[in-house]
Write a structure and sequence with these properties.
mainly beta, 57% strand
Length: 120
């Protein structure tokens, strides 16, 4: 059984920082891409950042220069360091990972989401 557990969300003032973490556990063979999505009220879910198994990263234009995605393969964990937060960053942030197990290949697992609220 694979489970993604997120942590680090909360309430901060504009200009502050948060560090999100998402740890995958279970009988995992490999993890390919690991991603962070977010969804604000009344808006579509959007891809914030992605990181491949080789460490290549990509970011949404709205967060470039402020957010950094990283991963610790030994811990099966992906991080999102968020600096210079703005009220428009307020959303539920979701961890996503493509994981191969004995039963499935590159199945997209999702975390439950963690609320990030940035006050003005």
């Amino acid at each position: 059984q694979v489970q993604l557990v997120e942590s680090g969300g909360g309430l901060v003032q504009a200009g502050g920082s948060l560090r999100l973490a998402c740890a995958a556990s279970g009988s995992i063979f490999t993890i390919t891409a690991m991603n962070w999505y977010r969804q604000a009220p009344g808006k579509q879910r959007e891809l914030v950042a992605t990181i491949t198994s080789g460490g290549s990263t990509n970011y949404a234009d709205s967060v470039k220069g402020r957010f950094t995605i990283s991963r610790d393969n030994a811990k099966n964990t992906v991080y999102l360091q968020m600096n210079s937060l703005k009220p428009e960053d307020t959303a539920v942030y979701y961890c996503n990972a493509q994981i191969t197990t004995i039963a499935t290949t590159k199945y997209p697992y999702w975390g439950q989401g963690t609320q990030v609220t940035v006050s003005s």
